[in-house]
Amino acid sequence: MDRDWMRQQLEAFADLALRYERSTRPGDYIGDPTLYEQLHRAEPTVKQILRLLDPELAEKINLDQMAGEAMARHEVHRGLGILADMDEWAARLVPDAPTLPADQFHPWVWEPAAPLWGAEARQDAVLAAARTVSRRLPQKLGRHDIGETDLGMQAFDMKDPVAGKPRLRFDGDRNTPTWCARQDGAKYLAAGAFLALRNVAAHEDAVPWTNRESQISCT
Fold this sequence. Notes:
Structural class: mainly alpha
C-alpha cells in the first residue's frame, strides 16, 4: 500500500470537510456548493482507503445525511490514526515467539559456523556446521563404510544393532509409542539435514542466501 498517498487523501478530505462545515451558516442545510461537490468527488476514494484500514469506518460515511460531512471527518481522523500506528501494532502487538540463541546450538554446529556467521557468510556457515557433523557422526559410530545420509538413517533405525552397525538411542522406555515416534523422527531428520541442508549449501551457488534461508537452515 502507498501509505503516503493514503494519508494525503485522507488529510485533504478532512480539511475539505472542515472548510465545508465552516461555510455553512446557522439555519442553512448546506454550505458552499463547490466544496460540497468536491467532497462527493473525493468520497469514493476515501471510502476505499478506509475499507482497507477498517471496513466499519467506511460504512459510517454518508455525506447526504444530516451533518454527514462532520461525521465523515471524524471517521477519516480515526483512519489517519490507524494509518499512523499500524506499523507499531504490527511490531508491538504480535504474540511472543520462541527464540533459540545460536550459541545454544550443539558445539558441533555452532563452533565451526560462528566465525563465518559473524562475517555474514551465511551459506558457508551452514556448510561448515554440516560438514563438521558429517565428520563427527562416523567417528562417534566407528563407521566409515557408507555416506552420511545412509549413516544417519541407520544410526537411528529401531532395529537391534548388529556387529559393525551400532545405533543411537534416545533415553526412555523403548516400548512406548512416544519413544518410537521420536526415534523414527530423528532418523528422517538426520537424513533430511544432509539432503536438504548440507547438499544445498555445498552445491547451490547461483543465488546468495538470505537471512531467512540461513536461519531455517541453522535451526
